[in-house]
Design brief:
There is one protein chain. The protein is an alpha+beta fold. The chain contains 5 helices and 6 strands; from the N terminus they run αααααββββββ. It has a domain of about 55 residues: Head domain of nucleotide exchange factor GrpE (Nucleotide Exchange Factor Grpe, Chain A, domain 2, Roll). The strands form 2 sheets. A 3-stranded antiparallel β-sheet has the order 1-4-5. α4 runs antiparallel to α5. The protein is elongated, with a radius of gyration of 48 Å. The termini are far apart. The relative contact order is 0.06.
Length: about 200
């Protein structure tokens, strides 16, 4: 009987070894799972409650920290937006400050010329003075990017010219600007005012 039992165990042992070879992980995982179950099972209900309360407190603290950070960011953004709006308003309000400053000397010279003409009505001197003031005004405006258009002899362009009259001309081909009634100007690359012109038929 003993002999039969030993033989049976011998037969079963290789089979168990084969199972271990096929599933080597099962033996490794089992102690870990057993340990977790043991820890959870060993914890009493009050201990589990304390552990969960501690985790909840930690999560709440983190959420409050993130919320405070969000509020600070929102306040910073609101301050930046208000500051930008104020700067934009100031910029629009005083956008003409530089050009006005450039034109003040021209205004001063106009006043001087008008005063001088009252004291000494010399037409030649007054004319020279006015010519100088005109050149000073041109210089101040050209510094700001103002440029006169050259229209006479150019083909008519509705983007640059405003045709007031059509005239017969033997000197110029059809649709050519023959006379400039009012100067046109560019401000840098933009058409500030088109020329008022006469165009050949």
């Amino acid at each position: 009987m003993v002999r039969w039992r030993e033989e049976t165990l011998k037969d079963q042992k290789p089979k168990m070894d084969d199972d271990k070879k096929e599933n080597p992980e099962s033996d490794q995982e089992r102690p870990i799972l057993d340990e977790e179950n043991t820890n959870n099972n060993n914890m009493s209900a009050p201990e589990k409650l304390l552990m969960l309360q501690a985790e909840l407190a930690k999560a709440k603290a983190k959420a409050e920290e993130h919320y405070d950070h969000l509020l600070r960011l929102q306040a910073d953004f609101d301050n930046y937006r208000k500051r930008s709006q104020k700067e934009k308003t100031e910029l629009i309000k005083y956008a003409s400050e530089r050009i006005v400053e450039e034109l003040l000397p021209v205004l001063d010279n106009f006043e001087r010329a008008a005063s001088a003409a009252k004291v000494n009505p010399d037409f030649v001197a007054f004319s020279k003075g006015m010519d100088m003031i005109y050149r000073q005004l041109q210089t101040a405006l050209y510094k700001e990017g103002l440029k006169a258009m050259e229209a006479i002899g150019q083909p008519f362009d509705p983007n640059l010219h405003e045709a007031v009259l059509r005239v017969t001309s033997e000197e110029h081909p059809e649709n050519t600007v023959v006379e400039e009634l009012q100067k046109g100007y560019y401000l840098k690359e933009k058409v500030l005012r088109p020329c008022m012109v006469k165009v050949s038929n």
